[in-house]
């Protein structure tokens, strides 16, 4: 049984079009004893966004001045909108308030932009993992997702094991970073993309064809980013339909090209991203990755853990 936690909702991105799912998530979490704050963010709306830019920015910046910090800051959903806020985030205040505190900021998808900006500007390690509506509010709650979420937030050392079809073998150590690939690429050339040396880059995406994924990886290569990585770990790439025109060009073709052209190991098949089952990963944590005979393992340390 998980100890009751204080959870503060933020909605820096799109309007939560599935209000029933969000309310279902709140009901579930409250039934477990958790306190849910800032629920007004769920129904807030301006155009396609979860409120005006200022309202959504306030969700983030108010974290710098709270008299009592929550245990968890949880994104309501992704979509689009976080990029519009990055210029005006109170990075100094957030660093002063949150750095080295046991506070877990969690979300994925569009939330990746804010997570990487915080990592760059403040050194804050945040968690790429489930969100309120899409995960905790799913009609069928994934025990896999929930258990990995609490494990990541409460364990000083987190180990993940999975079966990978990757032909690579080896062991690498570095800094874990990444998230949604489209959002990573959107930050190239901006002050918000961390310059990670010896990185272990984890990527996922939704509604992106293999050729678009390859194009984004080429962009990372041509920007000099892939040359600084030790390895790439691929999560889920969902909601894509291949056609006869592709003639065998699929995601595995993309991963193999990265291995061949850029001499980077690509460890595939991690349950991470927009699928129902997703692990929770601390972006910015010290990480070891190893794979042998298709058995892959992650181990993370140095991330904030709840008391």
From TrEMBL:
The keyword Hydrolase appears for this protein: yes
Active site (record annotation): 109, 204, 274
Highest taxon above the source species: Bacteria
Pfam families membership: Peptidase_S66 (PF02016), Peptidase_S66C (PF17676)
GO molecular-function term, one example from the UniProt record: muramoyltetrapeptide carboxypeptidase activity
Keywords, ordered alphabetically: Carboxypeptidase, Hydrolase, Protease, Serine protease
Domain LD-carboxypeptidase C-terminal positions: 173-289
Domain called LD-carboxypeptidase N-terminal: residue spans: 7-129
Enzyme type, top EC level: hydrolase
Keyword hit for Hydrolase: yes
GO biological process annotation, one example: proteolysis
EC number: 3.4.17.13
Matching InterPro entries: Carboxypeptidase_A_C_sf, Class_I_gatase-like, LdcA_N, Peptidase_S66_N, Peptidase_S66C, S66_fam
Cross-referenced PANTHER family: MURAMOYLTETRAPEPTIDE CARBOXYPEPTIDASE, MUREIN TETRAPEPTIDE CARBOXYPEPTIDASE
Membership in a protein family: Belongs to the peptidase S66 family.
Protein name according to UniProt: Muramoyltetrapeptide carboxypeptidase
Organism name: Pantoea phytobeneficialis
């Amino acid at each position: 049984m998980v100890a009751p936690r204080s959870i503060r909702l933020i909605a820096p991105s799109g309007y939560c079009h599935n209000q029933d799912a969000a309310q279902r998530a709140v009901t579930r979490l409250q039934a477990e004893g958790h306190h849910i704050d800032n629920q007004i963010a769920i129904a807030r709306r301006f155009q396609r966004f979860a409120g005006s830019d200022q309202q959504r920015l306030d969700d983030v910046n108010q974290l710098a001045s709270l008299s009592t910090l929550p245990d968890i800051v949880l994104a309501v959903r992704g979509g689009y909108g976080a990029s519009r806020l990055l210029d005006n985030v109170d990075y100094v205040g957030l660093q002063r308030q949150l750095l080295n505190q046991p506070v877990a900021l969690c979300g994925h998808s569009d939330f990746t932009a804010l997570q990487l900006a915080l990592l760059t500007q403040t050194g804050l390690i945040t968690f790429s993992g489930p969100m309120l509506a899409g995960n905790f509010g799913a009609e069928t709650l994934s025990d896999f997702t929930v258990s990995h979420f609490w494990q990541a937030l409460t364990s000083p050392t987190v180990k993940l094991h999975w079966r990978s079809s990757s032909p690579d073998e080896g062991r690498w150590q570095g800094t874990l970073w990444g998230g949604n690939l489209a959002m990573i690429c959107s930050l190239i050339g901006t002050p918000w993309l961390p310059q990670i040396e010896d990185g272990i880059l984890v990527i996922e995406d939704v509604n992106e064809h293999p050729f678009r994924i390859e194009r984004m990886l080429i962009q990372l290569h041509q920007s000099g980013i892939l040359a600084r990585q030790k390895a790439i770990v691929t999560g889920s790439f969902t909601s894509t339909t291949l056609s006869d025109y592709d003639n065998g060009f699929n995601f595995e073709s993309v991963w193999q090209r990265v291995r061949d052209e850029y001499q980077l190991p690509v460890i595939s098949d991690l349950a991470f991203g927009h699928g129902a089952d997703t692990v929770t990963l601390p972006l910015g944590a010290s990480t070891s990755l190893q794979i042998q005979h298709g058995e892959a393992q992650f181990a993370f340390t140095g991330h904030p853990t709840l008391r």
